[in-house]
Amino acid sequence: MNVSAWQNAQVTLKTPAQKWQESAPIADHREAVTLLLEKLLGYRIIESLQDIDGVGHRVAHGGERFKDSTPVTDESLAEIERLAELAPLHNRLTPWESSLPPAAARYAIGSGV
Predict the structure, then answer these.
(1) Cα separation of 45 and 40, whole Å?
(2) pLDDT-based confidence at 30, cuts 50/70/90?
(3) Each residue of 39-83: pLDDT tens digit?
(4) Roughly how many angstroms between the first and final C-alpha of the chain, as a whole number?
(5) Which residue of 16, 44, 86, 101 has the fewest C-beta atoms within 10 A of its own C-beta?
(6) Closest CA to 56 of 76, 41, 79
(7) What does the angle CA 33 – CA 38 – CA 39 come to, to the nearest 5 degrees?
């Protein structure tokens, strides 16, 4: 994981009635989940962690199948893997690919293209 990319992470929480957005430094996925749970409780979106029935994931490029947050299942993970070539910077296939330094992970075309 490129930790430097998370130094100014955008945290957004939305309900039908309200939206909260702020920036925060986040070192890793564990810290991100901890922050998210703290915000859900702090903004009273949930009263307790037992209010959470499931977890979804928004796929960067999910074609027709993934337009919104989607429950994480064996089937959805297999479909994300199938669609990985459509968003290689987001839908990684292997830990090796996600560990590449930014210069190696980018396509060899100008950033203005």
Answers:
(1) 5
(2) confident
(3) 999 999 999 999 998 877 677 777 778 877 778 889 988 888 888
(4) 26
(5) 16
(6) 76
(7) 100
Q: Of 53, 54, 76, whose CA–CA distance to 66 is shortest?
A: 76
- The domain boundary residue, chosen from 12, 32, 51: 51
Extended strands (E) in the chain: 9-14, 19-24, 56-57, 70-71
Residue 91 has a pLDDT of 59
Question: The pTM is what?
Answer: 0.54
Helix, strand or coil, per DSSP, at residue 63: coil
At position 74, the amino acid (one-letter code) is D
Percent of the chain at pLDDT exceeding 70? 69
Give the span between the Cα atoms of 31 and 25, in whole angstroms: 9
Whether residues 14 and 32 share a domain: the answer is: yes
Q: Do 7 and 47 fall into the same domain?
A: yes
Pairwise CA distance, residues 45 & 16, whole Å: 11
Q: What residues make up the domain containing 21?
A: 3-51
Only one residue has tokens 């430094």, namely 25
Record the tokens describing residue 34, joined without a space: 């901890």
